[in-house]
Amino acid sequence: MHASFIELLKYLKLETTKGFNNKAIVGGFERLLPIWQEKAIAEGADSNLISQIVILMQPYDESSLESRKNIIHSVVALLKEDDREKESAHIQGSTPKKSVPSEPYQPRAVFAPLTVIQGIGDKMALKLKKLGLDTIYDLLHYYPRRYNDYSQLTPIRDLQFGEEVTISGSVQSIQKRNAKNSRLQLVECMISDGTGSLWVTWFNQPWLTNRLNIGTHIVCSGKIDTYLGRLCLNNPEWEPINAEHLHTNRIVPVYSLTAGIQQKWLRERIYQAITFWTQRIRDYLPENILQQEKLLSLNDALNGIHFPSDHENLHRSIERLSFDEVFLMQLGYARQKADWNSLSAHPYQIEDDILQKEISALPYELTESQMQSLAEIRSDLSSGKLMNRLLQGDVGAGKTVVARFAMEIIVRAGKQTAFLAPTALLAQQHYQTLLSMFLQDGILSQEEIICLLGATPEKEKQKIRKELASGSIKVIVGTHALLEDPVEFQDLQMVVIDEQHRFGVAQRAAIRAKGDNPHILIMSATPIPRSLNLTIHGDLDVSTLSDMPGGRIPVATYVLHPQQKEIAYEKIRTQVQSGYQAFVVYPQIDSDEDEPNNLAVTTGYTELEKNIFPDFRIGLLHGKLKQEEKDTIMEQFRRQELDILASTTVIEVGMDIPNATIILIEGANRFGLAQLHQLRGRVGRGEVASFCYLIPEEDNSIENERLRKMTETNDGFALAEFDLKTRGPGDFFGTRQSGYRGLKLANISDIKLITRARSQAEALLKRDPDLVLEENQALRYEFDHLWNNTTNGELS
């Protein structure tokens, strides 16, 4: 550690022993800091670290005892962290990167705890933690959920009932009294602005009578109400006329809150942080990008998102911060893709005549998009580069048969493949399908394709592990637990993953560790709108099965009013009596005081079993059950030991029951169309007509119009596009576990924004693939923070 920092640590230690009374040095730290800073720079200490320490220590003199304590602890932690980094770099034989000689890049000081801010003690910090706020950085990026526009003053004579307004006037009279039959204390004040007078009332704020003297000029903002036939303003925000207006007379930010946090208090703390810190954080976007995209500076954008001067300023601030979010996301995806593409692989091919012979032997014709997807996969496998491809297609579009041919290319070369499914039941079903395909074509023997599950007996597991290690097993089917199992492959060259949204970045990294960078093919039946592919699947190549095989009977879909539920019950009764099975889906597991009981599966199951279908065998399935219990119930349903399955959305994936012909979905308005389509896909898998009944909570014309879209089409991609337009992109982004946590503002369906950000990200990485140039150090710091240091795109 540099001598200047050792000297400072001595002062900090002494200050701690003196109880943080600012007497460790004569004149306090306010006098010490500039002297120490000048000396440390002259002696060649790290200028970045010096600046960060000075920024943290600046408010020390005026801080409370609790805040001083946290400031000292933060500076000590900063010095120790820097010392560990330098020691680690020395041990590894590398030299620390040169610091930027100008203002500091995104300082670690901004990740200091919130308690270094005046007015935030340990108790308030715990409450803020419930909002996800731990550091100064979190507070700066805690964006308002909406705004109240109080920027225009309204003359009192022009006030209208129900308006959100700002008025300015002087106090004519003020009094306090207790409300009748209540402990409520009222402060009543008459405000006049020369055009008229208005009664203003505050609740349980008796101290206002000492603050608001007659003649005091104030600004009030709130919603106009009426009392005894006259207009009034109840519990408005107010500020003195000559104050820095945060709560009135402007576009006022409104934040999400939690118990114990008041809007006004949080707004003031954020204003403190904004005014101090935005001048001390270097903009991480390169200057050329700011100019080309005509974006505000980071300082101006953070000021503008919290305390906009006008609507144009707010719009431009949102534009800048939205661009940042998408740019940093695309930067991560580009890094992941570049990392993947840099890895070489053994080329694998299959002769055209062999493949065509097997395709011709199928009992059905492959669709045009199946053939196109297979051609794209063949191109990947023969390129000498690793495949990292998503095969997306609607329920029943024929993804498995495409994956089977991809696996065959590897198997014919004598190598191994693995097929991972989200549930044990689905793994068994895929195993039976693949076994039938491979045995029929004579490509594998029954001993060469195996299913390994958690329920597999230990003795059999040991035998399977041994045969995988020797290479005698060519295809293994199982759940994602295969990645955690002590399984060793002789030569794993491809992994097929069913249902991408059950599979994250960490799992893909585990796959790479199981083999010598095996090819990855991900199958997903979750329809993603085409406009979102750049965002959702930015690091993957995408093949889409856009047409359906012939012969499938569309599921007949109906929207019923809640009072028409008996129609669906009667249809279920008819189907079960004909030997078929049914699903009844609920949006929640347990009922509570705030929710109608008929939306909880536990209550619904009891009602079905005792009152509606007492003669039928009914099972209960939900996410709180242990995995073994869920597997048992799903297996009972598959074996037709149950007639009806009452379930939550856990059946969305992992259930392939050809004998199920009808599904009833309660509280259908709570689901996006894409999810409803997935649930509907649990039926219609056989060769007989199937039915889907959607029952919303109430007769809401707008919701029912959205649900009626389900009755018009069985095309999942068309429904996904419609859902995107009506509900926004939120339902879709949860389908990827990307490791990126920077999306708060951006509309991920804004294809123009995504294209701009992606283009800039790719151009930047061409110039500086690892972000090692000094000009990109602030960007690198922001990138590592938002990508949480967990992705293949992490820069090390």
TrEMBL record:
Annotated GO biological process: DNA recombination; DNA repair
Catalytic reaction(s) noted: Couples ATP hydrolysis with the unwinding of duplex DNA by translocating in the 3'-5' direction; ATP + H2O = ADP + phosphate + H(+)
Stored CDD domains: DEXHc_RecG (cd17992), RecG_wedge_OBF (cd04488)
Chain ranges of the Helicase C-terminal domain: 564-730
Pfam families, A to Z: DEAD, Helicase_C, RecG_dom3_C, RecG_wedge
Family statement drawn from the similarity comment of this UniProt entry: Belongs to the helicase family. RecG subfamily.
The protein, known as: ATP-dependent DNA helicase RecG
Record organism: Anaerolinea thermophila
Phylogenetic classification of the source organism: Bacteria, Bacillati, Chloroflexota, Anaerolineae, Anaerolineales
